[in-house]
Amino acid sequence: MTETYSRLYGDYPFDKVGYYNSVKGSMEHQGMIALALSIARSGDTANVTGAHELAHQWFGDCVSPRDFRYAWLTESFATYSECSWLEDLRGWTVYLSAVQGKARSYITQISKSEGVFALEDFPRAAPSSNYPGTIYAKGAVVLAMARAIAGDSAFYAALRTYIADNAYGTVVTEDFRRAITPALGARTDAFFSEWVTGRGWAQLAIEQRPGQTSALSVRITQVQNATGGRQWPVFTTLPLNVVYTQRRPDGVLDTVDTILMPAADGSYSISCERLISVNGGTRCRSLVEVVSTTHIGISEWESNLRRMTPSFTLAPQPASNTVNVQRVRIGRFPEAAPAMIQILDLNGRNVAEGSMAADDTSTTLNVQSLPEGPYSVMITQGGGVVCLPLLITREE
After folding, report:
1. Which residue in 103, 105, 156, 162 sits closest to 280, CA to CA?
2. Mean pLDDT of residues grouped by 10 in the chain (396 residues)?
3. pTM for the predicted model, two decimal places
4. Residue 385 belongs to domain spanning
């Protein structure tokens, strides 16, 4: 754990590190961390509490906030570090899941119990507190979004610069802004205004309609200020991980898993064959809430598509060593037809394949040799093509 953080944040800043069991509560005492006895006995092999408190040796002990207005500079970073530790221990998909969990916790629970406020200079009176959940969960996801915008190399270089330039001293938000400006570039001011001193999160409305050059034209807009007199920012620095299919000139469907940045009005536009997920790919997770999905003028188009295309399901999801492909409905084909199955990686390479005879209702594919991660399963039957997302994970 210390090696992981030393690689990410710079050398461990003190001459020793240790843990001792306390009867109640955990705390990041410099060089000797208190870890609650209940946690030590819990059997948690990841020990995210231990990771959180260890990260405070950098963010909190080596570099300390000047006063409570800047407490997010300790708790947001230590909570983000739980995710970076899980990434190093168990892989990228676990990191994404951890960030998503913190985003969900903030939006659905924390914001409702303590109110919606900024990371910097937050209210300390009830229902908030000296250490509100906002500066833990929201702050961790904000840092994860900064990483998604900057890229890993630039993001962690900025954190190492921030620690080195301010070691054994006190800091304010401006010190972190100065360190990360080379990584965020022209987006720096807007990012801090929207996510650090601004309130709330992006609420998205997804609108799908028939496209001119592809099956679908998708527009994603931010609607957080549409009702209720709310004054949240329009988040122009929101990295949004979108997954969709796109048809190549040869007719093959490619799965695109990408991070999109919004237009000046906070919207996103996509031309695609099928929208698979929003904030659910393999690139990043962000502070977003999808509040509506609308299909405009595509009922007839969708009905025709369903008559042409058979339906399939994959189980289990996520898969480990095998995945079962089930043919749920043949649709209105005059007769059953054989199906060709291809598993594609994120680069569109065919990494495994199988087939189903005309009279088969299911088949099982062996995916034991495939690395953990996201894939697309492309199934071709007759004149129809179906593309399904597949996630492969394995327990240690």
Report:
1. 103
2. 97 94 87 88 88 97 97 98 96 92 95 96 94 97 98 98 98 98 98 98 92 88 82 95 86 86 95 89 93 74 47 80 78 62 80 90 92 84 72 73
3. 0.78
4. 309-392
Do 25 and 81 belong together in one domain?
A: yes
- What torsion do the CA atoms of 283, 288, 292, 298 make, to the nearest 10 degrees? -20
Query: Over the stretch 227-284, which tens digit does the pLDDT of each residue have?
Result: 667 789 999 999 999 999 888 887 777 888 899 999 999 999 999 988 888 998 889 9
For the chain, where are the E strands, in sequence order?
A: 19-22, 33-36, 63-65, 169-171, 202-210, 216-222, 240-247, 253-260, 268-272, 274-278, 288-295, 311-315, 322-329, 339-344, 350-356, 362-366, 373-381, 384-392
Residue 89 shares a structural domain with residue 52: yes
Q: For residues 92 and 236, state if they share a domain.
A: no
Element (H, E) at 163: helix 152-166
Tens digits of residue pLDDT in 332-360:
444 567 888 999 887 667 899 999 998 88
Instruction: Using the CB atoms, write b or e for 86-99: b if 16+ within 10 Å.
Output: bbbbbbebbbbebb
Residue ending a domain, choose from 196, 222, 257: 196
What phi and psi, each to the nearest 5 degrees, are found at residue 374? -90, 145
If asked whether residues 7 and 47 sit together in one domain, one would say yes
Structure tokens given for 66: 């000047």
> Which residue, of 300, 333, 362, is where some domain finishes?
300
Do 165 and 259 have their domain in common?
Answer: no
